[in-house]
Design brief:
The structure holds 2 protein chains of 2 kinds. Chain A contains 26 helices and 14 strands. The longest helix of chain A is centred in the middle third of the chain and has 27 residues, at 419-445. By secondary structure, chain A is an alpha+beta fold. Chain B folds into 3 domains: 30-96, SH3 type barrels (Roll), CATH 2.30.30; 150-330, Serine Threonine Protein Phosphatase 5, Tetratricopeptide repeat, CATH 1.25.40.10; 336-422, Sufe protein. Chain: A, CATH 3.90.1010.20. Helices cover 45% and strands 17% of the residues of chain B. Chain B has helices at residues 13-24, 103-115, 150-158, 165-178, 183-200, 204-213, 221-231, 234-243, 249-257, 261-270, 277-290, 294-306, 314-331, 381-392, 405-422, and strands at 32-36, 41-49, 53-60, 63-70, 74-79, 82-86, 92-95, 341-348, 353-361, 364-372. Chain B is globular and about 75 Å long. Chain B starts with 12 loop residues before the first helix and ends with a helix. The relative contact order of chain B is 0.08. Classes of the chains: A alpha+beta, B alpha+beta. At the A-B interface, strand 1, helix 2, strand 12 and helix 26 of A face strand 3, strand 4, helix 3 and helix 14 of B.
């Protein structure tokens, strides 16, 4: 398998995980078959033959479903359950139903004396739906956040900043182990950003004038003057040490509790950029453009960063990977002890083809391998006419070809560092680290930069407390992709650098789906903890607050029941009505129908999902223009509390 | 199945309750019936009977079916207007009131309900605001305060919330117990209990039991009559109504629900130029609508709308307008009278109007599609609901698509509007 094949497969897998597995809209709610006329009920067992008005997609034979009588409802509005039944067989529009467990005589009598129409439900009345959560669970053979877990910087930065264990550390360990076999193979084979950069470099990038000059053998800042050329070469070399500086800044800031990895680490950067550009287009085409939130500064900024990284390709191949990528810098560490390494034998004719082929500038003037740069792509071996380049196990080289190898230096052994270089490197790293500490401190203390969003953002369900959330969130954007209806959206630059791109509930666009806990499931660092649905439905992320002076019924300016309808339909039943403005007759008795039913939020039941706010906003504010802003808004809550849930969870 | 509350034909829940009760009631039983041991009834034509079972021909889902019932499930039969109770060992007794339960049966039902508390009562916690004045004065001092005055608390907080209805009963039982030595307050608690069982829980046996406990001065006779009718004895209900000295709008409502349409219209006429005429005529209109006398209903609703505008009759006018529209859109919509053509209309969906385009050819809906919408989660509603309307050639009785009820309602309402607007 060639490297290109592996790259394409890896990019394909990455795209599948982000764009197929994390895509929520393949979910279908539990089905209901309505309009069933009971033709016959067997008096001994209650087995029934029913005929449907139409049956396009019959339930599978053997399925256990709930048979209900929609004509008879309890005080909560749920239809009466007749029996749990199994589908014995389907012929045309007719179905044979058999009670799943033996029925009491009274239940059989109820069946026999009901003439329908009945309905069959996959979901028993009063139970919570779970289709969004079920959908991703069914698709997730591999965790949707696999690549994010494997980014070698995500784990260490999150663990350091949050002082907490994260599974991304294990992913980092796995990739470092891979690096022991083949140095920076992750960059050369698996990294989707690296593959995109290769793709860009070999298509758009090759057309740039700078690259053309360089293709003729000139390094960055190339000039005909040998003196200037030397300067240019030094510039390239010093630029390539920048990634260590970036890494030092990120880790030092993490040590002070500020998460910067999200801005520059390879996988979060590419995930976020792609999510911000592919998601709106995909959703727009498939689900209608009205379902795409308007493009905002946060998305533009995320996209700009990705485009900027790709645009570096105009100045040199894999310039990002060579000079800036801090994730690559982490891998350079393991590259120094890699088991398989590039070797150059005496057959080398010094033709320099390999140096032109190398996208990573990993080949020194003497054709030896520069440590920490080779991504084991083996392009050099492919172009070498003399067959002088081999990738062999580190330990085996002395025994295999001792007499044929070049000098120790040319064989690619670690070049001895000059004292001056060591000093310069130490100084550079120290300065970067200091810079990182300073930056981290500034972001954490400066109110303007430290996420001064007012009111405090409502975080997705399962989020850790706000300070820890800011420390752990790598702004990868995966949660936005997994969220049905874009209930969570990235915070814009105007809310401060520290909060940039972190997810925030945007109830004026959409509320949090009760049947979904996808965001926590795809979060790579545990900023949003994975929650089972039962827990998610009880964990409050906010509290809905009614504005008594604008809410139509409270202000006695109109009847409205939108928020309560939404809350009841979702199953929380956290909004009650209270009568306001009741008129009394002469005897002091209330006048029937006088006054208004006004919403009252029960704090012990509200989880802050925001569905109420969405409805009030889209109808009363946007559509009917009755209000300036939603009369019910969700506010963040200080401490997460568990609500006393509405529905049963059977 | 379809909530008519979505979109423009919005109904208010107490009205919805009344309407549901009116439409869902047993109505006038005309054919043969079989009553089950627990009181369920099927109606049709009894076609055969043997020592083991009875076969009845029934109408269900637009089909004619023969259903066989074993004798052990059957409590009583009505054949050609003659009711026969199948007692133990097949001992049969005849009942003078056809297709109705006897006074003894009704009394037994009520006594049984009075003896046993509802199964949920024990598990329901006693809960009420501590600020309530449990001494419950007849005329509470100060203004309206639903956190201090018991009756106002029940009215404002308990009644509007189904989730508090059980709690309300528990609270009233507590009050009755608290005031057991005071006949006046105890009476009010009992009347309140009866009213809760009747209007909120629709448990007519228990409601009747409590109404019977209440002293005659405080008893709501019309409410008790409704209980008797709901329990299966129109005769007992009529006996009360005929005895009443004064009439109120609720009597007209009950007569209408019971199918005594002409009597309801006649009583409403007595209200002419009296306070409450608007409500009385509205109730008469509802009575006509219940039994399908749409023309008269429309005329009565129009009469309400034509009354001079006054502050107190706005509610009746709004309701008359809504009912009038519902009749035109749904009850009297006749697709065969719609000329060939393409018609379009909109109705409010989740966040914006849903617009449909309906093509009619030779009195049939040929195609129906949603041309514009901004719905978020509609699943199969955009396809399934139009398909169902075309299949049924009707906008009545359309089943909503799971998790997309609002969208379905909007499509149905918009289609009804488009067709109504085009009707000759």
């Amino acid at each position: 398998m060639t490297r290109r094949t592996v790259q394409v497969l890896s990019l394909g897998l990455f795209a599948a995980l982000v764009f197929y597995v994390s895509w929520p809209y393949s979910a279908r709610p539990a089905r209901t078959w309505t309009g069933l006329t009971p033709l016959e009920v067997e008096p001994a067992t209650g087995a029934a033959t029913v005929e449907a008005d139409h049956l396009d997609e019959p339930p599978p034979a053997g399925a256990t479903l709930t048979l209900v009588d929609p004509g008879e409802r309890d005080i909560e509005g749920e239809p009466a359950v007749l029996a749990r039944v199994m589908v014995d067989g389907v012929q045309g529009r007719r179905m044979q139903l058999r009670p799943a467990t033996a029925l009491a005589p009274a239940a059989i009598e109820k069946l026999a004396f009901s003439l329908g129409p009945w309905a069959l439900r996959e979901l028993a009345p009063g139970t919570w739906p779970s289709h969004y959560a079920d959908d991703i669970a069914a698709k997730e053979a591999l965790p949707a956040e696999t690549f994010l877990l494997l980014d070698p910087l995500v784990g260490p930065a999150a663990a350091l900043a949050g002082r907490a264990w994260t599974w991304a550390l294990a992913g980092c360990g796995a990739i470092l182990l891979l690096g022991l076999l083949a140095p920076r193979a992750f960059c050369g084979y698996l990294c989707p950003l690296g593959t995109l950069i290769d793709l860009f470099d070999s298509t758009v990038g090759r057309l740039s004038p700078t690259r053309r000059r360089r293709a003729r053998g000139a390094p960055i800042g190339a000039s005909q003057d040998p003196g200037v050329r030397r300067t240019g070469k030094r510039l390239t070399t010093s630029l390539q040490t920048l990634r260590w500086g970036v890494l030092a800044v990120v880790l030092a800031a993490a040590a002070t509790g500020t998460m910067l990895a999200g801005f520059v680490a390879a996988i979060p950067l590419v995930t976020r950029g792609l999510v911000f550009v592919v998601k709106p287009v995909h959703d727009g085409l498939v689900r209608g453009w009205h379902n795409v939130p308007p493009l905002d500064a946060a998305q533009l900024a995320g996209l700009a960063v990705l485009l900027g990284v790709l645009a570096l390709g105009l100045f040199g191949r894999r310039l990002w990977c060579r000079c800036l990528c801090p994730s690559g810098a982490v891998l350079s560490l393991s590259g120094r002890v890699g088991l398989f390494r590039r070797r150059v034998t005496r057959a080398c004719t010094a033709c320099t083809r390999c140096r032109s082929a190398c996208t990573m500038d990993a080949i020194a003037d003497d054709f030896s391998t520069r440590p920490g740069r080779c991504i084991t792509c083996r392009a050099c071996g492919g172009v070498c006419k003399a067959g002088a380049i081999r990738f062999v196990p580190h330990a085996g080289r002395a025994a295999d070809e001792p007499s044929e190898t070049l000098s120790a230096d040319q064989r690619g052994e670690r070049p001895r560092l000059q004292r001056r270089e060591v000093l310069a490197a130490s100084a550079g790293l120290s300065l970067s680290a200091l810079g990182g500490v300073g930056l981290g401190w500034a972001l954490r203390t400066d109110q303007a930069a430290a996420g001064s969003a007012e009111p405090a953002p409502v975080r997705p369900p399962g989020s850790v407390e706000e300070e820890q959330f800011l420390r752990l969130c790598v702004r990868c954007g995966q949660c936005f992709r997994a969220c049905p209806n874009d209930a969570i959206q990235p915070m814009p630059p105007s809310d401060g650098a520290r909060a940039l791109w972190t997810p925030q509930l945007r109830p004026e666009w959409s509320g949090c789906e009760p049947s979904c806990s996808n965001c926590g499931r795809v979060c790579p660092t545990g900023a949003i903890r994975p929650l089972d649905l039962d827990r998610k439905r009880r964990l409050a992320i906010g509290l809905a607050v009614v504005n008594g002076s604008t809410c139509l019924p409270h202000a006695q300016s109109g009847h409205c029941r939108l928020c309560k309808e939404e809350c009841d339909a979702a199953g929380y039943r956290a909004i009650e009505f209270i009568r306001v403005g009741t008129r009394t007759d002469a005897a002091g008795n209330p006048v029937e129908d006088s006054g208004f039913y006004a919403p009252l939020v029960r704090a012990d039941r509200c989880v802050g999902c925001g569905l109420c706010q969405t409805r009030c906003h889209v109808v009363n504010v946007v559509q009917k223009k009755l209000l300036e802003e939603s009369a019910i808004v969700v506010r963040a809550v200080e401490t997460t509390r568990e609500s006393a849930a509405g529905r049963s969870t059977a | 199945m379809v909530r008519r509350s979505g979109g423009d034909v919005r109904t208010w829940w107490p009205a919805a309750l009344v309407l549901a009760a009116a439409l869902g009631g047993t109505g006038i039983v005309t054919g043969d019936t079989i009553e089950s041991t627990s009181g369920s009834v099927v109606e049709g034509k009894i076609v055969s009977r043997d020592a083991m079972s009875v076969v009845i021909e029934v109408q269900a889902g637009g089909r004619t079916l023969n259903r066989r019932y074993p004798l052990h499930m059957i409590k009583a039969l009505t054949i050609d207007g003659k009711r026969e109770v199948l007692g133990a060992g097949g001992a049969a007794g005849n009942d003078p009131a056809p297709a109705s339960k006897s006074r003894q049966e009704i009394d037994a039902l009520i006594a049984q309900a009075g003896r046993t508390p509802p199964d949920w009562l024990e598990a329901t916690p006693l809960s009420y605001p501590k600020t309530l004045d449990l001494s419950w004065p007849d005329r509470p001092p100060g203004g309206w305060n639903n956190q201090r005055n018991v009756g106002q608390y029940v009215w404002d907080v308990i009644n509007p919330n189904p989730s508090r209805w059980k709690e309300g009963v528990k609270f009233m039982l507590h009050l009755a117990d608290l005031h057991k030595g005071d006949p006046n307050r105890r009476d009010r608690a009992w009347a309140s209990l009866a009213s809760m069982y009747q209007k909120l829980h629709r448990d007519y046996a228990r409601a009747a039991w409590w109404w019977r406990q209440v002293s005659p001065q405080r008893r709501n006779e019309t409410a008790l009559a409704e209980c008797y009718w709901k329990l299966g004895s129109k005769a007992m209900a009529m006996e009360i109504l005929d005895r009443l000295q004064t009439i109120s709008v609720s009597d007209i409502k009950l007569l209408g629900e019971m199918g005594q349409t002409d009597q309801a219209i006649k009583l409403a006429g007595l209200f002419a130029n009296h306070p409450g005429a608007d409500e009385a005529v509205l109730a008469a209109g509802d009575a006509c609508r219940t039994v399908g006398r749409y023309k008269e209903a429309v005329a009565l609703y129009q009469k309400v709308l034509d009354m001079p505008n006054q502050k107190h009759n706005q509610r009746s006018k709004n309701r008359a307008r809504a009912n009038l529209e519902a009749i035109q859109l749904f009850d009297t919509l006749d697709i065969s009278k719609v000329p060939d053509g393409t018609y379009s209309a909109s109705s409010m969906g989740y966040e914006a109007p849903v617009t449909v385009e309906v093509v009619v050819r030779s009195g049939r809906i040929e195609s129906l599609k949603v041309t514009h919408h901004r719905e978020k989660q509609y699943y199969s509603a955009m396809v399934e609901t139009p398909n169902q309307i075309i299949r049924k050639q009707s906008v009545k009785g359309i089943d909503a698509v799971t998790s997309a009820t609002i969208t379905c309602d909007a499509i149905v309402n918009a289609t009804a509007k488009a067709l109504h607007g085009a009707m000759k």
